[in-house]
Amino acid sequence: MKKILPFLLLIVSIQISAQVISSSRWTDLFSYGNVLTVREDNGKLIAATENGIFFYTPSSGEITKLSKANGLHEVKISAFDYNPETKIGLVGYRNGSLDVISPDGITYVVDIPLATGYNGDKKINHISITGNLAVVSVGYGVSVFRLDRKEFGDSAFFTNSSGVYEASREAVIKDNTVYAATATGLKSHEINTTFAIYSTWTNVAAGNMTQLANGGVIAFSDANSVRYGSGTSFSAIPQSFAAIRDVTVTAENIIVTDNAAISVFGNNGTFIKTYQAGETLNTGFFSQGNIYAGTQSSGIKTESGDLIKPDGPYNNTAYKINLQKDKIWLSTGNRTNRFNDAAPHPLNLGFYHYTGSEWVYPSYFKTSGMLFNVMDVAANPADTDEVFFTNFIPSGSQGVYKMKYNASAKDYEFVNVYKTGQDVYFNRPMGLVFDDKNNLYGSIAFLTLENPAGSAGLMSYDRAADAFRYKSLKISAAVQKPIISEGLIWIPLPRVNGITATDYKGTTSVNDDEVFVVGVNNGLPSNSEGVLSVAIDKTGDAWIGTDNGLRVLSSAASNIRNSPAVEPVIIEENGLGEELFRDSGVLQIEVDSGNQKWVSINGGGVFYLSSTGEQTIKHFTKENSPLPNNSVTDIKVDNKTGKVYFVTLDGVMVYQGDVLDVTENFGDVLVYPNPVVYSKYKGNVRIRGLAEKTNIRITDAAGNLVHQAVSRGGYYEWNLNNHRGVRVASGIYFVLMTNADGTDTATAKIAVVN
Fold it and tell me: Which of 104, 150, 298, 547 could bond 585 through an S-S bridge, CB–CB 3.0 to 4.6 Å?
């Protein structure tokens, strides 16, 4: 059985920025199925995938992984190579940046050289390491990277007389000469003083070259044939291929990946063996007589059919998340044109499910032959094997689908589909939510009921009739995912400056429902074009996120009925008031059990705010944290574990927060780190498991008071300073805590070593 082990980094250094963006608090929920490159180091396989790298030891079955959660600085890997002699790897990303992985740590390089006037794609197409040099292929040509200095050397910009750039698809170094595969042939040039002058490069072979590799020999290919040789003369492998996807060369072999097949040849072109993988491949590798296939979705596949990869979702694309105890469901849809149209979805994904022990991808999404744009998935709280998902897509397949999980088959079985219409432009279901009676409700866009042009709508599931009922909200057309609080179903309207709240009377009948609307006349931002999100906090206030700011409706359940006024959150600084998130798109709001708020800003990362919003506790961006990108489409807090799930279209990242279930009394109080050794840790000491309001007194061993405070929200951080602002001396300190009314107490010890 394969064992998953953590990948430990001794040192992480970043060129350009000195901030370490990963820590032990972060873990990824990335997919490691799309294997781009496979390399080897002393019997261990190294696989580069879309969002990370994993390491596999065949003799033990051990797997470790490396991602932005524990050392890398980006996602969307596009190229990788590794030198087993120097133990240095080079990771290239779609945005043109690089990570240098060495025994000393990981260095981030962002200063890729660009030609004056070049406005093309900066994606790293290919990397090949020879000794202490690496040649990097980009849309403008090639650049030589010096691994010892971690800096770029010579670059050659492939431009013709008209100034048009030609991409280097792949390039290698052999005998101080760079060979580059381009759409017009195989080019070469010695690394010398004229290297940068494209007109001095030699045309080695004509043709539309796609692949190039260097090991014992150089091998290159077009779509259907492979040639190999010393660099001055070449021979053809006597075999034609359907569609060559990759060529890899080791010291003894040439490995050709052709769609779903891998063929292995000796360095003299002699055929050795082939393997039909039965699925689309990216690359292949041959080691100790065994073929390893790098697949597009299943990880590394062996000749015996075993799949090798860290467990994770089927794909990195994610949009919304549903948590039920230790189970997870991730939807994958998206929309464009101000939440109007289903986004182009070439992968045609469905949803992913974590059972509590492993990830499952329903085979239905692979075999049904239908198009999917799954915006939301909801599991029945009374029976989590029963799930519903919405298909928001202009294909006549739009509707709500019911499925049942079969644990023995580790797969979902299709149960029913509740079609919402055949017209491709209308009746598109968006979000789903269960109430505390396990009744299912949903939001539906462009509902034609009572309005041929379409309006926002509410759905309810009649379980006895096994059918959905619909109610027009008679406003707008597009909708967001609903939430339920205190008998009201709240639905944000992203294409109009408004939000609805429906009193659904606690039933699935829609006939007697009352609908209330909050709009610009109630104080929503006048420059807003739509409401994107809503959350109800622990005091009953509604936090409403628009595409141009944030508003709060106090005592929402009662005030919504009385022409309420919503207010901005005002932050005062130096005597001046500033509106919180003014002119910002508020994508998602999540409230933790301590009433603090996690707020996702479109393009601005995630803010963690105090209960009133007047204090920023943390601000995570893709630049200062492992977030995959700065537009987080969903946030969920697991109050049992304190984990915070950040969902993006580039993958899911998990942060270990400090707030667990918060009540009037204490939970399991934990102080960490403890002991605090200054040489190893220079941050604050955290105390979690506190009451909603906690009075804190910290004394030294003699009973002298050194610090006191009032904590709200279930946790507290102490900077180890006494009441004079001076760091306390080494020793044992006692933390004495009482809740708000003094009916519950807790104590803890902190050991400090300066």
Answer: 547
Assign 55 a pLDDT band (cuts: 50, 70, 90).
very high
Rounded alpha-carbon distances, angstroms, from residue 336 to 167, 343, 345, 393, 726: 31, 5, 11, 12, 54
Nearest alpha carbon to residue 221 among 250, 252, 251, 185: 185
- C-alpha–C-alpha distance, residues 274 and 256, integer Å: 9
| Apex 120 CA angle, 74 and 205, nearest 5 | 105
Predicted pLDDT at 315: 97
- Give pLDDT tens digits for 492-520: 999 999 999 999 999 999 989 999 999 99
Report how far residue 630's alpha carbon sits from residue 620's, in angstroms, rounded to the nearest whole number.
9
| Residues 6 or more apart whose Cβ sits within 8 Å of residue 144 | 133, 134, 135, 136, 152, 153, 154, 155, 173, 178, 191, 195
Q: What's the residue count for the chain?
A: 754
Distance in angstroms between the alpha carbons of the first and the last residue of the chain: 44
Q: In angstroms, rounded to a whole number, what is the distance separating the alpha carbons of residues 637 and 606? A: 13
Closest residue by Cα to residue 256 from 281, 230, 290: 281
667-703 burial, b at 16+ Cβ within 10 Å, e below that, comes to bebebeeeebeeeeeeeebebbbbbbbbbbebebeee
Q: Please tell me whether residue 426 adopts helix, strand or coil conformation.
A: coil
Residue 636's Cβ-side half-sphere holds a number of Cα atoms within 13 Å equal to 17
**Centroid of chain to Cα 712:** 31
> For tokens 């893709």, what's the residue?
622
Whether a cis peptide bond, with omega within 30° of 0, leads into 482 is no
For the residues of 610-663, what is the DSSP string, one character each?
Answer: -TTSSSEEEEE-TTTSS-S-S---EEEEETTTTEEEEEETTEEEEEE-S-----
Q: Identify the three-state secondary structure at position 112.
A: coil
Give the model confidence (pLDDT) of 703-748 as tens digits. 999 999 999 889 999 999 999 999 999 999 999 999 999 999 999 9
